[in-house]
Amino acid sequence: MEIQKKLRLLFVINPASGVAKKVAPQEVVQRFFERRPEAEAEMLLLTGRPMADGKRLRELVGAGGWTGVVAVGGDGTVKMVASCLLHTGIPLGILPAGSANGMAKDLCIPESWVAALELVLNAKVQLIDVVNINGAEISIHLSDIGLNALLVKYFEKSGVRGKLGYARVAFKALWYRQRFAVQIDNGKDRVARDAFMIVLANAGKYGTGACINPYSDLGDGIFEVVLIKRLSLLEGLKMLFIRRPFNPHKTEIIRARKVYIYTRKRAELQIDGEYIGKVHEVTAEIIPRSLAVFVPETKG
């Protein structure tokens, strides 16, 4: 008789993610696995010191023996954990606990923590692409230059969390929106445009639910460069808060495996919900099927 091996899961918890919670995620995880003898959960609480946290996580991942590693936080936490799991074959799970949980939405992971934990125990494993940015960072979800990166900058500086805080900084970013001149070269075509925002889209939706990339396929070996060429204040607010798709007549999509982007004026850059700074140049290249993730047996 074959003895089934006990599942061993590492939960990487960012206590600073999202808004204040009635119950700490580590308590939910602990109570859940007290009733699941087939699995054991270990936890790593992030300290807010990226270098030290990353080093500790890489050490734990390198020790081996994990059935999966679960990021408990928003898109920034997911990106941090994913960077330590690249090419390891160890699946990434997500317990959505951030102000924005865009990658969880794209992978059809439930918002309910208990449902998300059940999914981890009963999920299938899928290999997805990631995008290398400037040779130093990875993006598994959405990165962009311009308007939304400015919003992320304002959001981080405000210190306010939750939907009200997001709405406040979104209005400010939209009010001060500016188009900028940009050149884009995907190795096949070179174009010059004016745009409010350039999105490097591995996935399809922002955490608000707004669909930026209708061609999203996380495992096709291609990412999309989405140019937002025209955007009114009212239209921007509708897209962010009513979950309307971006108007296809005001966007342009370039598909690429590798791309070079140059902006005449320095513009804001964010990667998976984390503000990076102002840049003139961005290079991006797909790393196909390099990250294993837990997804529902049937997505939808």
The share of residues in extended strands comes to: 35-45%
Count of domain modules: 2
Shape: globular
Major beta-sheet overview: 10 strands, antiparallel
User: Helix amount, in percent?
Assistant: 25-40%
The class by helix and strand makeup works out as alpha+beta
- Return the CATH architecture of the largest domain: Sandwich
Radius of gyration: 19 Å
Regarding quaternary structure, how should these chains be classified? single chain
Strands, total number: 14
Q: Give the rounded overall mean pLDDT.
A: 89
Order of helices and strands: EHEHEHEHHEEEHHEEEEHEEE
Q: Please report the first level of CATH classification, the CATH class of the largest domain.
A: Mainly Beta
Distance from first to last alpha carbon? 37 Å
Number of helices: 8
Looking at CATH, which topology of the largest domain would you report?
Answer: Tumour Suppressor Smad4
Low-confidence stretches: none
Write a compact overview of the structure shown.
With 300 residues, the chain is α+β, with helices and mostly antiparallel strands. The protein is 28% helix and 36% strand.
